């Protein structure tokens, strides 16, 4: 059994309202491959909204993180309900439970785990725990850039990069604050480096690139 872990951006799953059409299309494509999948779902706009609401009520950053984590779990349950078949029925709360569920189902879904780390780090830890073949970061950005491509249209995309380059870039941009992180946070970068995990960064809506990345083939991302 070969496992691929997806860090699935919340902005794709729930850009304002849950996007069942997108998730269904993604899952349909994944079923056409030979792999089993661990999926960690981000909070996206919902997490930012809940975290900011908590801050306005005087919550600490720890408590804002907890609010954001609940948003990731809400999105994760939506993904589970959309997959329907051969998937855990409730969101896995720990990496160990996800690994056990992975022995029973082709798809295993979880959200965030503890305050202070992002779902990218959770996905990397899940990849280590499950012995995944590779990890995919699916977001609304089509790769790793040397600057924010939304703000800087001259930003350069990396088609390939070393762990050291990724760690350096993440270290300059990671604010360690709920809802405000680089496309792949610093801790996640350090984790994939220590375990030499093959990582791919593609736009989640480009299902052709996603499939190529799942299969370890060249694609338009990083």
Explain this structure to me?
- The protein is α/β, with parallel strands linked by helices and 222 residues long.
- The protein has one domain: Carbamate kinase.
- 45% of the residues lie in helices and 14% in strands.
- A five-stranded parallel sheet has the order 3-2-1-4-7, sandwiched between helices.
- It is globular.
- The two termini are 25 Å apart.
The arrangement of helices and strands along the chain is EHHEHHHEHEEEHHEH
β-strand percent reads: 5-15%
Helical content band = 40-55%
Structural class: alpha/beta
CATH architecture: 3-Layer(aba) Sandwich
Care to count the β-strands?
7
The average pLDDT is 92
* N-to-C span: 25 Å
Features:
alpha/beta; Carbamate kinase; 5-stranded parallel sheet; two-stranded antiparallel ribbon; 7 strands; globular
SSE layout:
Blueprint: E1 3-8, H1 10-13, H2 20-31, E2 36-41, H3 44-56, H4 61-83, H5 95-102, E3 107-110, H6 119-130, E4 134-139, E5 144-145, E6 157-158, H7 163-173, H8 186-194, E7 198-203, H9 207-214
Helix pairs in contact: 2-4, 3-4, 5-6, 6-8, 7-8
């Amino acid at each position: 059994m070969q496992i691929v872990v997806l860090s699935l951006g919340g902005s794709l799953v729930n850009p304002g309202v849950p996007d069942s059409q997108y998730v269904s299309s993604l899952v349909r494509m994944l079923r056409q491959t030979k792999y089993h999948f661990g999926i960690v779902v981000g909070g996206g706009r919902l997490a930012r909204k809940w975290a900011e609401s908590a801050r306005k009520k005087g919550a600490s950053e720890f408590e804002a993180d907890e609010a954001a984590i609940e948003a990731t779990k809400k999105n994760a349950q939506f993904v589970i309900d959309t997959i329907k078949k051969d998937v855990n029925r409730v969101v896995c709360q720990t990496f160990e439970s996800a690994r056990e569920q992975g022995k029973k189902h082709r798809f295993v879904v979880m959200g965030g785990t503890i305050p202070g780390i992002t779902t990218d780090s959770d996905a990397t830890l899940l990849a280590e725990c499950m012995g995944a073949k590779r990890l995919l970061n699916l977001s609304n950005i089509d790769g790793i850039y040397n600057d924010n491509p939304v703000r800087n249209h001259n930003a350069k995309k990396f088609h390939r990069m070393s762990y050291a380059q990724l760690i350096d870039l993440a270290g300059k941009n990671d604010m360690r604050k709920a809802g405000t992180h680089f496309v792949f946070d610093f801790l996640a970068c350090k984790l994939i480096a220590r375990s030499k995990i093959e990582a791919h960064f593609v736009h989640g809506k480009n299902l052709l690139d996603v499939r190529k990345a799942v299969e370890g083939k060249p694609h338009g991302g990083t």
